[in-house]
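Q: How do we represent a protein-ligand complex in a form that can be generated token by token?
A: Start from the inputs.
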Amino acid sequence: MKTYLKCIFYSLGITLLFCTAAVGQNTKVIEVKTKSTSLVYAVDHNKRLVFQYYGKAVDAPDSFLRQQAYPKPDTNRDFSYEAYPTFGLGNVNEPALAVINADGSLNTELAFEGTETKSPQPGVSETVIHLNDRICKFNVELHFKAYWAEDVITQWAVITNNENQPVNLRRFASSFLPIKAETYYLTHFYGSWAGEMNVTEEKLENGIKVIESKKGVRTTQTENPSFILSVNTPALENAGDCYGGALAWSGNYRLAFQVDEWKRLNITTGINPFLSSWTLKVGERFTTPEMIYTFSSQGRGQVSRNLHDWGRKYGMVGGTKLHDIVLNSWEGAYFTFNENTLTGMMDDAAEMGIETFVLDDGWFGNKYPRNNDDAGLGDWQTNTQKLPDGLDYLIDYAHSKGLKFGLWIEPEMVNPESELAGKHPDWIVQSPGREKITWRNQLLLDLSNPKVQDFVYNVFDSLLTTHPGIEYIKWDANRHVEQAGSTWLPTSEQTHFWVDYTKGLYSVYERIRARYPDFVMQDCASGGGRLDYGALKYHNEFWTSDNTDPLSRIFIQYGTNLIYPPVGTASHVSTSPNHQTQRMAPLKFRFDVAMTGRLGMELQPKDIQGKDRDFAADAIRNYKQYVRPLITNGDLYRLKSPYDEGGWASQMYVSKEKASAVLFVFSLEPHLRGVFPTIKLNGLDTTKTYQIEEINPNGRSRFWGDGQTFKADYLMNAGLELYVGGQYESAVFILKETN
Ligand code: GLA
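Then emit the structure tokens for the protein with alpha-D-galactopyranose bound:
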């Protein structure tokens, strides 16, 4: 005979259901819910917190309460999967937690203690589940934040040592998710400098697939701590069960996907424990980074839109605000400029409708002038030879032209040839007695050291205090960690370096954001080397790649926007031939591609003259008037993938009310004469009609129905055959609701 006690918090989206249960049954169900998804745990008869379900919303807590796991052969354990598996409780898979206890023993057995819920802000609920080891005074809190409207659930763990001696953490994952399906298809991202976020999908077979970084800094240049998982079918854009995941951590990460002997997929994500064992002192708490999850039963398109909605509202700064169009000086001037070069660029920028001028690398260093990348890094004083009138002269000049002024810094790094390296050799990451290996002629400052944290904060703060006219900072980081080692950390805690570096960086960001909450900051690490939701939380945008070639960018931004919001994706028009690939591409193609993200420019604007200049000014006007609001707050619908056969790419952004949209179509290669793409639109309101108008036409129309009105039904089912077929041809259309 079971007795049920039901207590439902609909406003929080959380249901708790208790019953008295027989052996083998659950005693309590804990549901974390969003608008369309449910994540369900149960407490079994043995007080174990076990995973039940994550997927499309299910409103049947009583069924989960009755749900039973079958017995595992050859053991008195059953097949249920712990919510946060430890080593030592019948778990033979990857553990989320592995601890060497104070008495040297290796086992941890977590038992359910209690749960609490709160609502930190409207639309967000937080569930905390308390677990205690059955023998040691060792506690784990599992935190779940549910974002109702966005269908996102984030998860992290807090581990506390209440023993009277330190313990040693060997594994300390943020999240564990055991998914059950027939087959698993993992989409993940790989790349290199100037070629980030390539997309690859593979079927997972038995064994462990690991996506990780051990680079410490610039960790996302080669892989990214994010993925899309489609079950039972390779990922489809508009159908099928799909999970999206991203770890909010800028240091070493490890995402492990283990298909176990029972064909279940165990996803364990968090900080990479590689050489990172952590001594947890008496009374100390260790908080893992947040793992962000979403689910959709309507394919990966909706997974991306959920992450974008969550990202711009909760995962970045100013994600729902219209951003400025930037001219960055890097590809137009590199290290070689004087005041006239820069004021000339500002004149042209203002004329074309640009809103912020950003002075990139090369403006600092006197004893060791920053005239190339081998000297001066660390010496953040204005170079008096290049800029005799100082930064304020440039700032005032920008203002006189109606432009805001931005500046590049790389405060975590130092050239050996710098005053800073001479003054504070102990601040440099190093291994005793070993030669320091440079990358891009530079070394890394040890952000685990609070003095270095102060220094880095002060680079930022004193620049803004001395020059309050600066309204944008590009924060760069151009090397990773090698020969990890800290003169600050004691010998026994050298393995803390990786985590302490990242936490040190975050503590600097925290101080900056406490003082400058809305200030515009770009996240850059040799391009997209720090693209993760841990860093993005403190930034307004990220430099997607040093590769500004429009064809490359179609691929890079396609991958990037599977996970990260287009509004953060800095996307600059550069010169032709492109400096990274030497490829030639028409100005229209370069603009049209850059307009799919956070439009900016990165060239010597003097080089754009005559008709091209008119075209640029016109495209910038169109972007401001029609496209920018849709990139900022609209929904992305991918229509044609550049990875598909056919040689086209197409996507659209639709306003939330479905009143307007922008459609982009790109031809990536020369097509046979008369071969044109048919583009079936998506995301429109099927009851509406829309007027279509081409923008940036540059002399010729690419649609027979330009200016005409069409039913959404026609646009989405019959589709538009567009006159776009030549190599690097493109078209952009605005759709406006007419009824
Ligand atoms: C990195 C950045 C570039 C530029 C240079 C300056 O490579 O990614 O955009 O700022 O540094 O040195």
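Residues 1-23 have pLDDT under 50 and may be disordered. Residues 262 and 406 are 55 Å apart (CA to CA).
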